[in-house]
From TrEMBL:
Keyword presence, Magnesium: no
Molecular functions per Gene Ontology: oxidoreductase activity
Organism the protein comes from: marine metagenome
InterPro entries reported in the protein's UniProt record: Aldolase_TIM, FMN-dep_DH, FMN_HAD
Alphabetical UniProt keywords: Oxidoreductase
PANTHER family: 2-HYDROXYACID OXIDASE 2, S -2-HYDROXY-ACID OXIDASE-RELATED
Cofactor: FMN
Segments forming domain FMN hydroxy acid dehydrogenase: 3-189
Name under which the protein is recorded: FMN hydroxy acid dehydrogenase domain-containing protein
Keyword Oxidoreductase: yes
Secretion signal span: none
């Protein structure tokens, strides 16, 4: 249908391209939500109701989109939030997101379930960084991750409290998605 990134003109085009290119279980893991996906659909509807209201008849020579977030100036009023298992859907995973965050001067986050280590992200990217901490039963593991974030100059830690137990992701059950993934021939159709 689209085949190429340059043919994507809106978020639904990107979604359809991802559906074409990714193995079915991975696409549905990214695209889906928990249970009957009611919250997912409500969130989508809420975003669709948001209007961007342009300031008209204003000078455009010096447009400044920068904002301050957690005491850091970023060039855009948005940032890349942490997402687990990013190398499932891009061969560079968090590295690719880090490169884009650096290019555009904004925050990016990595998950406790990142596919790239805290050390590498801390060493290789100077843009502001957030670490999403899942609290584990192993207090030593939690302490170790927090210390690494300090040592590698992360700017913030986001405490995640929504995954005490894994969500009932019905789409994942239907497509056979597992973490780590276990692909079979049918996964690609």
């Amino acid at each position: 249908m689209f085949g190429k990134l340059k043919n994507c003109h809106n978020t639904n085009d990107f979604r359809l391209l991802a559906k074409q290119r990714l193995p079915s279980p991975i696409f549905h893991y990214i695209d889906g939500g928990a249970d009957d996906e009611i919250t997912l659909h409500q969130n989508t509807k809420a975003y669709e109701k948001c209007d961007l209201i342009p300031n008209v008849l204003r000078g455009v020579e010096e447009v400044d989109l920068s904002v301050s977030l957690m005491g850091k100036k970023i060039n855009l009023p948005l940032f890349f939030s942490p997402t687990a298992l990013q190398r499932l859907f891009h061969y560079d995973g968090e590295r690719a997101v880090g490169k884009v965050a650096e290019k555009f001067g904004t925050f990016f986050g990595i998950s406790s379930l990142a596919t790239v280590g805290i050390e590498e992200i801390g060493n290789d990217y100077s843009c502001p960084k957030i670490f999403q901490l899942y609290i584990h039963k192993d207090k030593g593991l939690n302490d170790s991750m927090i210390e690494k974030c300090k040592d590698y100059n992360f700017d913030a830690i986001a405490l995640t409290v929504d995954t005490i137990v894994g969500g009932n992701r019905e789409r994942d059950l239907r497509t056979g998605f597992t973490s780590p993934p276990q692909f079979n021939f049918g996964s690609f159709f």
